[in-house]
Specification:
The complex is a heterodimer of chains A (218) and B (191). Chain A has 218 residues and is mainly α. Chain A contains eleven helices and no strands. The longest helix of chain B has 22 residues. Classes of the chains: A mainly alpha (218), B mainly alpha (191). Chains A and B meet through α3, α9, α10 and α11 of A and α1, α7, α8 and α10 of B.
Chain lengths: 218, 191
């Protein structure tokens, strides 16, 4: 009985300290922090230098975390805007198209959307450790021919061309700004959260680019 | 105007990226005629400040060992190389703001790309430096060269809203440009 209580207690602690993104219903194919994820070829030391080059510092972590509370109940609205943008941009919706018919694959889009919501929260949690770094590599592979379509068993085009990955930094961050301003933060704080987001999204798009690079040139 | 050594705008090979692809990329970064207008204005604002802008950027590079690394070999920066690049960098600021983004512009972005990549790095200035600037720092640089420009954009008495618009246009233009510079680094057919 005591042991049972102790185990329940332990589970309770583990559950409550697990990061918040993980606490929500885990979407299909969301394998953050699991053994299904390979190690990133980039080291944490290299990540630090890259962050330094982006002027990404402690203050940005603080403002990303601040954005977490502001964004956590707005992810669906944000995704409506982002999906609206993709849907109205044929060169982007193409990457979600059925390989045979060319029509957008609704199921594929819906599955990605759930993980996309987790991505918003994970970015805002700003716990950029080894697990996070490894998962960025996984996300890169899922845009790339190595793993695209596999997670959702989609019958879509085999790769997202690299150039659209960093390009999306702008629509993603520009459209996010009004959501950051929706919960009464000061204009100065909104600006700082926005800047932290720009840096983080740019950082991630750089990491996602890794599989596309010629050997030794990343 | 004095001729800048190694500045060969309008005299380079064709870009592998088509104008049609450039147009789609511009749409993706939300680049509009309004941005073009505000870039031109930014050009006016920045034209007599390029030296100060470059002082700041060079200060940033100089203060980061892992960045200054690309301008030398064995830990020793090639000062002549840094100086030669600086003149073209100043011209790049003006071109980013003033040139039409046409075939000549597209071609020159590819030339700049090759000069960061092992294909042509060091050749223009006969520099004694490492053979390539790694991709990750090329894209990372978008942020410092964007964030630091705002102070300069606000120095000529424009309203906050106009400064913000110039800044947004600059951010889009730099992102667009740097994406084009990554072309030689990417596996065939994956750009």
């Amino acid at each position: 009985m005591k042991a049972k209580i102790a185990i329940l207690f332990l589970i309770g602690i583990l559950y409550s300290t697990a990061n918040q993104a993980q606490q929500q219903k885990v979407p299909s194919g969301y394998t953050y922090g699991t053994s299904a994820i390979a190690k990133s070829p980039m080291s944490l030391e290299e990540l630090k230098l890259l962050q330094q080059s982006l002027l990404f510092g402690e203050d940005d972590i603080k403002y990303l975390k601040m954005s977490h509370d502001i964004l956590k109940d707005q992810t669906s609205d944000i995704l409506d805007v982002w999906y609206g943008f993709v849907a109205s941009t044929p060169q982007l919706v193409y990457f979600f198209g059925n390989k045979t018919t060319g029509k957008p694959d609704g199921e594929y889009l819906a599955m990605v959307r759930e993980r996309f919501a987790m991505w918003i929260l994970q970015t805002a949690e700003a716990n950029y450790d080894q697990k996070w770094l490894d998962y960025q590599y996984e996300i890169g592979l899922r845009h790339y021919s190595t793993k695209k379509n596999k997670t959702d068993n989609a019958n879509s085009v085999p790769i997202i061309n690299y150039r659209y990955i960093p390009a999306l930094t702008i629509p993603v961050t520009t459209t996010l700004k009004p959501f950051l301003a929706k919960k009464g933060a000061s204009a100065e704080d909104v600006d700082k959260m926005y800047n932290a987001w720009v840096k983080s999204v740019l950082l991630q798009s750089i990491l996602w680019g890794q599989p596309y690079m010629k050997k030794g040139e990343f | 105007m004095e001729k800048i050594k190694g500045y060969t705008y309008g005299q380079v090979g064709a870009s592998p990226v088509s104008l049609a692809d450039l147009d789609l990329l511009k749409k993706t970064v939300l680049f509009s005629p309004d941005d073009e207008k505000h870039l031109k204005l930014a050009g006016e604002v920045l034209k007599d400040q390029t030296n100060e802008v470059l002082d700041l950027w060079y200060g940033f590079v100089g203060g980061n060992e892992h960045l200054v690394h690309y301008f030398g070999k064995g830990g020793k920066p090639d000062m002549e190389y840094l100086a030669a690049v600086r003149l073209r960098f100043g011209q790049w600021i003006m071109d980013l703001c003033n040139k039409p983004y046409d075939q000549d512009w597209l071609n020159y972005q590819h030339e700049i790309a090759l000069r960061h990549h092992s294909t042509k790095k060091n050749k223009t200035d006969n520099a004694n430096a490492v053979p390539i600037i790694h991709y990750r720092y090329l894209v990372a640089f978008i942020f410092p060269i964007t964030a630091t420009i705002k102070g300069f954009l606000s120095k000529k008495g424009h309203e906050t809203e106009t400064v913000e618009k110039m800044y947004a246009a600059w951010f889009k233009a730099v992102t667009l440009t740097v994406i084009l510079w990554t072309y030689p680094y990417i596996n065939k057919n994956e750009f």
